[in-house]
Specification:
Elements lengths: L1 H5 L10 H10 L4 H42 L11 H23 L9
Length: about 120
Amino acid sequence: MHELLASVPPRAVPLGFRDAVMRRVAGEGRTAWEWIVAAAVALPSLAFLVYQHVTHGDELSTTLNNVIAAATAETADAFFFVDGATVLALALVGIASLIAAHAAIATPARRATER
């Protein structure tokens, strides 16, 4: 796969390509809904992660120590357990971050003061 992609010669994008893409993204006008969806996805997940940290913080620190030990050791003898709900909550926070980043990019820039 690497050889196939490396054999394709690089091409410069046409002039104005970035501006056209940004105009299209900024012109969609649905940023309010994106912020609402991002908050609806992120807030319950963040609340769950805080709850997990408060109730099972000692297990989390042990797990992180085992992960670091496994990463630095030449043999992978460390054992760690990660709850599936925690992984799902982290994934949902990541998705919400992507949605919020798109909304932030699509929001027109505000001028602080005009002189």
